[in-house]
Amino acid sequence: MKNTNSEASLGNFALLCLGGYFFAIAYGVTFLIPLMVEQRGGSEAFAGAVISTATISTVLLVIISGHIADTFGSAKAVAASGIFLVAAMFGFFISSNLSYNLMLFALLLGIGWGVFYTLAPILVSAIIKPERRIRFFALLSGSMMAGIGTGPLVGRMVTSIHLPIEYAFLIAGLASLSGVAICFYLDHNFTKNNNVIPHVSKISPKSIFAIAHSNAIFPIVMVGLGACIFGGLSSFQTTYAQTFGFDYSLFFAGFMLAAIGCRLMLAGYVVKRNPFISSFLLTSLVAISIFMFIKNTNQVYTQVYTYVLASIILGVGYGLNYSVINGLAANEAPAGLMPQSLLLFSLSYFVGLFGFPIIAGAIIVQAGIISMLYILLTIAIVITILSIFRIWQQRHSIFRATRLR
Questions:
Q1: Taking each helix axis from N to C terminus, what angle separates 369-396 and 338-367, rounded to the nearest 10 degrees?
Q2: What CATH topology corresponds to 201-398?
Q3: Which among 289, 389, 383, 358 has a CA at the least distance from the CA of 34?
Q4: Which of 15, 47, 152, 225 is within CB 3.0–4.6 Å of 34 for a Cys-Cys bond?
């Protein structure tokens, strides 16, 4: 019976990963929004405004996700989140102009992705035993990263057969629909087997204050700044590639394979090292990658190779550092506030991911894509300085985490 239960848990986890992969494709195709907007005569500023609109709904849903999960159940809420992704993708597909309907579809996207990204780890907690969760969290993260990387590649495939870019959103919508069916089936399995889903701890002003006065605030800030880099580079990669004659699919393929490979094969090794030194080395790789993107525009013979190499280095640095600082956000949280710290970690991530594109788009329109890259390089340097401070802080044992009594 024990083996049967274990097999059922692995089967449910595999379903969750597959559903997550399909949902993540929907998020991945949003990196094609600047290309779609440009083909309709719009600017990067308008594209950035559309993408950043998702910040509003995402932030709200992350904050209230605990209430939603405790009211309807995490599994059912995750399944329902896919319906919003389907609606968003079909909305982008049927739209034919630059109306503000695009922002409505972005709001739907934020609802769907925000709920799934926040609650999916809760389901892992119900499926997998505590001693095995770290590895399975990495597997879930890898499946989502695979979906995110697949989205732009779907767009490249669509345009290669001379179909409008909007068809990429149609394919993503159909993928999300498959994810909805999978997750509702997963919810049925939970109900049938009487799995106990852990409650999601809600965020309160008191918990926010306590976390802000602990060491957990550092990884929370760092993930938000890192998300600005990922959001800026990914959302406007089509603009960069088109400006300098690259194939944007090379960026997403290189980044995706590096990020997935590192999270699945190296994350377990890296998290056992000194996290502060690891974070410094990995954020330095991110800065080096952005520097390569900037300097690559002045080269002649090695542009494509440098472009791919920079993408791979970014995938290694960003992909692994996310896992490191995610662990720090949990381990350095005040006593009893680890769930809230992780929710704030997700909230910071989404604010940077969806919020920065509106700034990046405006910078590109006013000063060009290279100026935007210099802004990202500055952000990467700031994160690196923070990681250096954490090393100094660790060695001098100052600013200990606040603990609630």
A1: 150
A2: Growth Hormone; Chain: A; (1.20.1250)
A3: 358
A4: 47
Per the CB < 8 A criterion, the answer to whether 13 and 127 are in contact is: yes
Q: Taking the CB of residue 402, how many other CB atoms lie within 10 A of it?
A: 18
Confidence of residue 342 (pLDDT cuts 50, 70, 90): confident
pLDDT beyond 70 at 397: no
Token pair, residue 233, equals: 């580079």
For residues 359, 141, 277, 306, the Cα torsion angle rounded to the nearest 10 degrees is: -60
Q: Which two tokens stand for residue 326?
A: 């995610």
Amino acid at 402: T
Nearest to 109 by CA among 126, 84, 142, 146: 84
Residue type, 115: V
Q: Which two tokens stand for residue 394?
A: 């660790």
CATH says 1-200 is which class? Answer: mainly alpha
Instruction: Give tens-digit pLDDT for 357-378.
Output: 989 999 999 999 999 999 999 9
Residue 403's pLDDT band (cuts 50, 70, 90) = very low
**Is the confidence at residue 5, as pLDDT, over 80?**
no
Domain ranges in the chain are: 1-200, 201-398
What mean pLDDT is predicted for residues 254-259? 89
CA distance 62 to 81: 12
Spatial distance between the Cα atoms of 279 and 286, rounded to a whole number of angstroms: 11
Q: In the chain, what are the helix, strand and coil shares in percent, each to the nearest 5? A: 85, 0, 15
Taking Cα atoms as reference points, which of 173, 188, 168, 154 lies closest to residue 78? 188
